[in-house]
Design a protein that fits this description.
It holds the Pfam family WD40. It comes from Neopipo cinnamomea. InterPro entries: Dynein_IC, WD40/YVTN_repeat-like_dom_sf, WD40_repeat_dom_sf, WD40_rpt. This is WDR34 protein. GO terms for molecular function: dynein heavy chain binding; dynein light chain binding. The protein is mainly β. The protein has a single domain, classed as Methylamine Dehydrogenase, Chain H, CATH 2.130.10.10. The chain is about 10% helix and about 35% strand. It has 6 helices and 28 strands. It has a 4-stranded antiparallel beta sheet with strand order 1-28-27-26. It has a 4-stranded antiparallel beta sheet with strand order 2-3-4-5, with no helix packed on it. Strand 19 and strand 20 form a beta hairpin. It is extended.
C-alpha cells in the first residue's frame, strides 16, 4: 500500500526568549517581576498588671511590729518637759496677725496689668450718658454698671439704664450687655447683694431706691421705696446692704443722700421698701475738735456723698460730706437729730468725731478690710488722698495725686498696703497746652513701695472723660473694674504684685497706723 499509519516522534524547537529570561533569573511563567506580600499588624494589645502598693506577708508584718518599741515613760517625761514651751509658742502664733488675709495663690503669675474687657452699651453712649457706678455680684463673675449723669444735664427726666455682663460666659459680647434695665431717672449708685447674686440695689437722682432681680427678665423690679414723706429729697449717692438682725434670711438697705439723711430700709410684702431706721447729719450736732479750723457751719443738714462701714465693728461707719469733712458715725447713737423732721421713724444724730477736712467736698471714703484700728481713706475735689486712723483727727498722711478732682478711692481686698483711686486728671500737675490730650487714669498705690506717688497708672480714657467709679473684685481678686464719663467700663487684670499679699504686709500696716501727728 502506498499509505500506512505511522507514529513519529515529536519535533522540538528550543525557545530563545525563555533561555534569555532564565539567564536573568526571572520566572518563566510570567512576564513581570515577582510580587512579594507580607502581613503586618497595625495595632497590638498587650496587658500587664502593675501594683502601686504591695501587701506585706504576715511574717514580715510581725517582724516590723516587733521592731517598733516605745518607751512610754521617756515619752511622757519628754512631753512634760516641752509642754510649757509648746503652749507658749502656740499662744504667740494665735495672737499674731502676720498672716491675716494671706491666701496661697495657685494660679499662674501675672507680671503685667492688662485690660481684659472694654464694656459699653451703645444706646447709653449715643445719649452721652456716663457710668456713675460699678458693682460685682456675689460670685465675682457678673459686673453691673449704672448709667446717668454726674455733670450738667437734665438729670430728673433723662432716661437711664442698668446693664450687666457675665464675664464667664463663652459668648460674651462687650458691646451687648446680657441684661439691660430701663430706668426712668438717672441711676447714681449700685450695690449687688453680698450673698444673693441676682439682687442689685440702686439709688436714683429722684431720691428713690429700687431693687432689681436680674434673674427676672420681664419685670426685674421687686422692691422700691416710691415717692413718700420718708423718701430722700436729694439724689441718693450710695447704697449699702446690711444684715437684718431680726430676720436671718432678710437684709436691710442703707442709703445716703445730699439731703443729709442716712436711712435704713426693710423689705415689705407689697413690693415696697419701708423705713426701718434713720439718721440725720446736722451741722450743729457735729462734734468740734480744738485741732480743726473753726469753719462757719450753717445751721442746716450736711450733704452726705459717700459711706463705708468698718469690717470689724458693725456699728461703726465713716461718711464723707460736701463740707470737706470725713465723719465717724455709729448706728448705736441715741441722740435725737435736731430739729425734728417729718419722718415715720425718729431720726438720730450719728456723728461721733470729725476728721481734719479736705479743701473741698469729699467724694469717696473706704475703710481698710485688714486693720483692726479702722484705718480709712478719703478723697475729694482737692485732688488729695488722706489716710486716717479713727483714733485721731489728723491724717497719717495726705497724698497730692492731682490738681483736680478725685472721684473714688478703694482699698484692695487682698493687699493691705494697696489701694486704687479714680482720677479726672491723672499724673499731670501742670496746665496742658491747647490741643493736648489729658489722660484720665486709674491709679494704683502700693504703700510698701511709696507713700508719695502712684506705683502704676492705667490709661482709662482720653480728653474730657474722667474716671468716676471703680471696684475691686473680692472673689476674683485679680480683677478691677472702672467706669468713666465716656460710658465705658474697663475690666483690668492686675499683676501678681497687686493681687498677692506679702508675708510682712500686716506689720508694715501696723507701723503706718502707729504713727501719730504731733
Amino acid at each position: 500500500a502506498m499509505f500506512t499509519d505511522l507514529a513519529a516522534s515529536g519535533a522540538d524547537v528550543q525557545s530563545l526568549w525563555r533561555s534569555a529570561r532564565s539567564a536573568r533569573c526571572e520566572p518563566k511563567s510570567c512576564q513581570t517581576g515577582r510580587i512579594s506580600t507580607a502581613e503586618a499588624a497595625t495595632q497590638s494589645h498587650t496587658g500587664q498588671d502593675a501594683a502601686v502598693q504591695t501587701e506585706q506577708g504576715k511574717d514580715v508584718l510581725q517582724d516590723f511590729q516587733q521592731e517598733v518599741q516605745v518607751d512610754y515613760t521617756d515619752l511622757l517625761s519628754f512631753l512634760q518637759r516641752v509642754e510649757d514651751t509648746v503652749i507658749k509658742e502656740l499662744n504667740k502664733n494665735w495672737e499674731s496677725h502676720a498672716f491675716d488675709g494671706f491666701e496661697v495663690n495657685w494660679t499662674d503669675q501675672n507680671e503685667t496689668v492688662l485690660c481684659l474687657h472694654t464694656l459699653s452699651y451703645s444706646e447709653a453712649r449715643d445719649k452721652n450718658l456716663q457710668v456713675t457706678s460699678v458693682s460685682w455680684n456675689a460670685t465675682g463673675s457678673v459686673i453691673a454698671c449704672s448709667y446717668g449723669r454726674l455733670d450738667d444735664g437734665d438729670w430728673s427726666t433723662e432716661k437711664s439704664y442698668v446693664c450687666t455682663w457675665n464675664l464667664d460666659r463663652r459668648g460674651l459680647n462687650p458691646q451687648h450687655p446680657d441684661l439691660v434695665v430701663d430706668v426712668s431717672s438717672s441711676v447714681m449708685c449700685l450695690a449687688f447683694h453680698p450673698s444673693q447674686p441676682s439682687l442689685i440695689a440702686g439709688g436714683l437722682f429722684s431720691g428713690e431706691l429700687v431693687v432689681w432681680d436680674t434673674s427676672r427678665t420681664e419685670d426685674p423690679v421687686i422692691w422700691r421705696t416710691g415717692m413718700t414723706d420718708d423718701t430722700h429729697t436729694d439724689p441718693v449717692y450710695q447704697v449699702h446692704w446690711l444684715p437684718d438682725t431680726k430676720h436671718r434670711h432678710h437684709s436691710r438697705l442703707l442709703s445716703v443722700s445730699t439731703d443729709g439723711k442716712i436711712l435704713v430700709w426693710r423689705e415689705e410684702r407689697d413690693g415696697r421698701l419701708g423705713l426701718a431706721d434713720g439718721f440725720a447729719v446736722v451741722a450743729q450736732q457735729i462734734p468740734r475738735s480744738t485741732r480743726l479750723k473753726k469753719l462757719a457751719w450753717a445751721e442746716a443738714a450736711v450733704g452726705v456723698t459717700s459711706l463705708s462701714f468698718s469690717p470689724f465693728d458693725p456699728h461703726v461707719f465713716v461718711v464723707g460730706v460736701e463740707g470737706g469733712y470725713s465723719l465717724r458715725c455709729s448706728t448705736a447713737a441715741q441722740t435725737p437729730a435736731l430739729p425734728p423732721r417729718a419722718s415715720s421713724v425718729p431720726l438720730r444724730a450719728p456723728v461721733e468725731l470729725a476728721f481734719s477736712p479736705h479743701a473741698g467736698p469729699v467724694y469717696s471714703v473706704s475703710c481698710s478690710p485688714f486693720h483692726r484700728q479702722n484705718l480709712f481713706l478719703s478723697c475729694g475735689t482737692d485732688g488729695q488722698v488722706h489716710l486716717h486712723s479713727m483714733l485721731q483727727t489728723q491724717p497719717l498722711f495726705a497724698l497730692q495725686v492731682s490738681q483736680k478732682y478725685l472721684f473714688c478711692v478703694r482699698w484692695s481686698p487682698v493687699r493691705p498696703l494697696v489701694f486704687a483711686a479714680a482720677s479726672g486728671e491723672g499724673k499731670y500737675l501742670w496746665v496742658p497746652p491747647p490741643g493736648h490730650q489729658i489722660k484720665r487714669e486709674v491709679l494704683l498705690f502700693d504703700l510698701a513701695t511709696s507713700t508719695r506717688k502712684a506705683t502704676v497708672s492705667l490709661k482709662q480714657a482720653l480728653s474730657h472723660c474722667p474716671v468716676y467709679c471703680l471696684e475691686f473684685n473680692s472673689k476674683q481678686t485679680q480683677l478691677l473694674a472702672a467706669g468713666d464719663a465716656a460710658g465705658t467700663v474697663k475690666v483690668w487684670q492686675l499683676s501678681s504684685d497687686f493681687s498677692e499679699q506679702g508675708p510682712r504686709e500686716m506689720n508694715h500696716l501696723e507701723q503706718l497706723a502707729s504713727e501719730s501727728v504731733d
